[in-house]
Amino acid sequence: MSAADPNLQAAPSSNLEVQSSAKPVAVGVELEPGAPSDVDLMLGIQSGDADALSQLYDRYNGIVKALILRIIHNDTEADDLLQEVFMEIWNQAKNFSAAKGKPLGWMVTLTRRRAIDALRKKQAYARAEERLQAEPEQQPLAWVQNTTEKEIEAGDTRALMAKVINSLPEAQQQVIELAFFQGMSQREIASNTNIPLGTVKTRLELGLKKIYDGLKELKDEF
Amino acid sequence: MSFEEFQNCARLYVIGALEPDELQKFEAARKQYGSAAEDFINQCYGLHEAFALSLKPAKASASIKDKLMSMVRERQDEAGAKPS
């Protein structure tokens, strides 16, 4: 990654703060009535409640593992990393601040960083590049696979997110895929795809803006 | 840098895609725009959630949670009731 993830830098250990007016744009997962919120669970973890971590794991292990798998493409390693990520959530919970964003966003940022680090450490990066070069047209489709109109009509969160992303031209999906899931810089994307650097930048900017605007519209509907 | 340009950079920043020279200009603009800049950056982190939520959840090995909770209990025993 070419820039630091500021949400992962040590926050003041003053625990959770009141939510600021700047809410992240994504729509969250639906909870059962009476279930503790993600922030409640993070508060519990910050105070050393192992049951809160257990509940957070039950709620998000599928999403976290899917993200890890999307980056490192190995099921066994993904399971190992999943365990390490939740252990890091336990160890680093004091650095989470609700004023800076939602727990899921914090977890995803942490997970992505760990998974990309793992990918690079074991030098699988080159192999992933080869795989991506071999299947450039399939990546965006794989990202949003198995989304049905029925799921979209039912308001399924994944389907709605996928619909927003799928509305982008494939060329824009491809560069976002490489930047977000492979941790490539603009120059690395340009080098790996033979797309001019300026075009990479434009595609990233346009694609991310469309997703951002699409998610904002989606959020306003809820 | 206009605020619109800053917004474009912020969306790249949160996914770690700014080049070093762009990062310098971004940080300067971030200081210039103050709390409005910080609020916008925080909003942009919603993109991380969105990308993760767009994926089909994957099934983890059943033993992972047992191992995790066992490690947590060990850590609690070592460090008292609070996480380190």
Helix/strand order of chain A: HHHHHHHHHHH
The share of residues in extended strands of chain A comes to under 5%
- Tell me what the CATH architecture of the largest domain in chain A is: Orthogonal Bundle
CATH superfamily of the largest domain in chain A: RNA polymerase sigma factor, region 2, helix turn helix motif
Highest-level CATH class of the largest domain in chain A: Mainly Alpha
Q: What is the total number of structural domains of chain A? A: 2
- The helix/strand series of chain B, from N terminus to C terminus, equals HHHH
* Number of helical regions of chain B: 4
Mean pLDDT of chain A: 79
Overall form of chain A: globular
> Rounded to an integer, what's the Rg of chain B over CA atoms?
20 Å
Radius of gyration of chain A: 18 Å
Class by helix and strand content of chain A? mainly alpha
What is the strand content of chain B? under 5%
Q: What is the 3D shape of chain B? A: elongated
Helix percentage range of chain B: over 70%
Top keywords for this entry?
heterodimer; A: 222 residues; mainly alpha; Rna Polymerase Sigma Factor, Chain: A; Arc Repressor Mutant, subunit A; 11 helices; B: mainly alpha; 0% strand
What can you tell me about this protein's structure?
The complex is a heterodimer of chains A (222) and B (84). Chain A is an all-alpha fold and 222 residues long. Chain A folds into 2 domains: 1-20 and 33-122, Rna Polymerase Sigma Factor, Chain: A; 125-222, Orthogonal Bundle (Arc Repressor Mutant, subunit A). Chain A has 11 helices and no strands. The longest helix of chain A is centred in the C-terminal third of the chain and has 25 residues, at 197-221. Chain A is globular and about 50 Å long. Chain A starts with 37 loop residues before the first helix and ends with a helix. In chain A, 42% of the residues are buried. Mean pLDDT of chain A is 79; it is low at 1-21 and 136-142. With 84 residues, chain B is mostly helical. Chain B has one domain. Helix content of chain B is 75%, strand content 0%. Chain B has 4 helices and no strands. In chain B, helix 1 (3-14) crosses helix 2. The longest helix of chain B has 25 residues, at 20-44. The radius of gyration of chain B is 20 Å and the shape is elongated. In chain B, 40% of the residues are buried. The model of chain B has no long low-confidence stretch (mean pLDDT 90).
